[in-house]
Amino acid sequence: MILIIDFGSQYNQLIARRVRELHVYCQIDPPNINPAAIKALKPDGIILSGGPASIYEKNSPRIDPAVFDLKIPVLGICYGMQFMVSAMGGSVSRSGKREYGFAELLVKKPEGLLEGVGNKITCWMSHGDSIEKLPPGFKITASTDSTRVAAIVNSRKKLYGVQYHPEVAHTRMGKKMLRNFLFDVCGCKRSWTMKSFARDTISTVRERVGDKRVILGLSGGVDSSVTAMLLHKSIGNKLTCIFVDNGLLRKNEGEKLKVTLKRHLAINIRFVSAGARFLRDLKGVVNPEKKRKIIGRVFMEVFEAEARKIKGAEFLAQGTLYPDVIESISAFGGPTSIIKSHHNVGGLPKKMKLALIEPLKYLFKDEVRVLGKTLGLPDELIWRQPFPGPGLAIRIIGAITRPRLTILRNVDDLLLDEIKKAGYYKKLWQSFAVLLPIKTVGVMGDRRTYENIVAIRAVTSKDAMTADWARLPHAFLGKISNRIINEVNGVNRVVYDISSKPPSTIEWE
Ligand code: XMP
What we know:
With 509 residues, the protein is of the alpha/beta class. It has helices at 12-21, 35-41, 79-87, 174-185, 194-209, 222-235, 253-264, 275-282, 288-307, 322-329, 348-351, 365-374, 379-382, 402-421, 474-487, and strands at residues 2-5, 26-29, 45-48, 74-77, 91-93, 99-107, 120-127, 130-133, 139-143, 151-154, 159-162, 213-217, 239-245, 268-273, 313-317, 355-357, 430-444, 447-460, 468-469, 491-496.
């Protein structure tokens, strides 16, 4: 495995992605990990990430320099290299001005990392400080016009440093450099596959759970379905899933999910129909955060009441993914402001004294999809677009009523039908409709209408952190608009949302 030390770079997840793409397992840890803990992990190599700090700043992140004496190859990227240089007796100059963007890398010594990459390649730079003096035992292997020390090596100790970012696609041959590091320098094997991951996880979970029982909240989304499948293969009927129908699902979704889940996951599932209770507590509520809080609270109450009926349960399984984990441990990930409160069963483990099982916590979304496929889940579960926990409640702007839910369900159903038929469903991160609390005038036949507006939202994204509005063809949008206005009672106007995230968000509330 490869250990990645997080010095706060925005590219950390990308480094992890690249390593995993090469079928090598990797893990990201904060810089305060101590050498003994590193040794215990038995990494074949260590990558020190970049970061926004300057090594001269008072609280700049640092790792115990003993890491350079563990006889484990180290690759320092950007800040990671500067830290290595200064920790080993070299010096870094504060240039004050940033070099940001493309640069031409002249390879002087094509060895180790740089073997076979050619002698002149484009690379991606993003740094302020530069290396001034190398520590003993190091030599320069590549330079650019403005950065003399762009790549360095200490071959005897297998320590490498690069000022540019090999993990970014803009660095041509970046992947080849990482490949050189992983396989030639560190001697890694290409053993990380979803098959091996599934096999290992199934046996670890089995050992941990023993003869106890596990509860899992199933939403019908990819993450919870894959978690359920993995646990089922591991502990069979010691797993009980709970599916809460909050009355805010899409048209016939509860029913459809019931059938699909039962067919493909031959698992204990308890379906709890709690729509009336959610709608009662949401009556007249307009404020988005209030809606979210109420839904979160009611969900907890319903889930807990059901979970208490399962005797002997000692674990709660969750489909937490790696990006969530990284965000919470990131060296610079201080308290981020709450934009929208996401609900989950976060408080439950403590309240019910349950231990957590999070088998996907080192995986990225696309890896989870591959894992689902490996475990035999059908495409209709693996390729579901994300659907928020609070459901249609945050897609109805203003108060939630049954008639408004019906209108939105009909629009949403028709929209997804068209999106699927046209082959856009998998290509879009999400596509959905939002019902606005305003009426406008229209004319149908010879009669004046005074009806609702719906907005269509379709976005592309890799991880929902940022998103772009989808450039769907005008003719296609026209067709959707026509069908909605003609076929859904209560709507006489359709608009298309052309805002990206940031500054907007994907959901409207
Ligand atoms: P925003 O609207 O913040 O959404 O850009 C980012 C992603 O998160 C989903 N989302 C939620 N998912 N519970 C969830 O499980 C929630 O409360 C929630 N709110 C937003 C949203 O659909 C998008 O994919």
